[in-house]
Amino acid sequence: MPVPILLVTGFLGAGKTTLVNRILQQADGRRIAAVVNDFGAINIDAELIAGAEDGVVSLANGCICCSLEGDLLRTLANLLRRTPRPEAIVIETSGVADPNDVIRNLMDPVIWREAPLETVLCVVDASAPEAQLDDPLFLSQLRAADLLAVSKGDLIDRSSLDERCRSLSQINRRATLVEAPGGEVPLDLVFPEVETPRERTTRPKRPSIDRFESFNWTSGEPISLAAFQQAFGRLAPRLVRAKGFLATIEKPGCRYLFQFAGGKATLAPLDREGSAQEGTRIVFIAEIDRITAAEIDEAMSRAGIAS
């Protein structure tokens, strides 16, 4: 029996991990394996995925559309050799991945025979700046999708949300568009009952162009939350994304999930044991040449935080 693949794509900070978690929570005993690709040496997203019946496989420090494409195919082959086999596989790409390159790899005849790509789902942040609609990477993610899941609609008013949905539908007219509050998407759309998944046409592979780079910052000791907020305020204007786990002096024993996307930062207590390692670990993502590791270390040390 072929194992269907769901490919989840979307720009940095769109809400892909939240949506994947919701899918796994609704699995109802179905064996679903999750393959998570994070753009950085610290795979934050893999630690946030909970409830995969067949386990979570982490692909870190690269992008599966280029440097990790061989790792992806080997990972899928290993998953398909498991006993019992997964009944479905979810692949969450990094926010810097072009899904067309991933789709091309998934159409490898050996993989396609045993694990056909059934659905490409693009998570779209409704509250993202309108300029994102002109971003070539975002447009590539959008146009590759069969299903558009619009997240964070609660952050804007209803008329703005309707207008954004109309714009998305005009860009990709063949895709089904659904609102996905809290990452909620109907499973019958995610894994539709199809006898033969359609083969896909992709554009010729383009030369790889490095656009983003990631920096990892860690501290083995709890840090001052006030000092961290001060340091991050200096860094934020030059970042497109940041995320990580914080252990703070103010709340010993409590771990926080830190997220920064679309110019907005959030800090929330982890409602479960989400991190296998103690201390603070953060991934910073920026356009190339916008910031350096030394500048990140300097900002953190200026605020009295030692790595």
From TrEMBL:
CDD domains: CobW-like (cd03112). It comes from the Bacteria. It catalyses: GTP + H2O = GDP + phosphate + H(+). Keywords: Chaperone, Hydrolase, Nucleotide-binding. The keyword Lyase does not apply. Residues 212-304 form the CobW C-terminal domain. It holds the Pfam family CobW_C. Belongs to the SIMIBI class G3E GTPase family. ZNG1 subfamily. Zinc chaperone that directly transfers zinc cofactor to target proteins, thereby activating them. Zinc is transferred from the CXCC motif in the GTPase domain to the zinc binding site in target proteins in a process requiring GTP hydrolysis. This is CobW family GTP-binding protein. It comes from Bosea vestrisii.
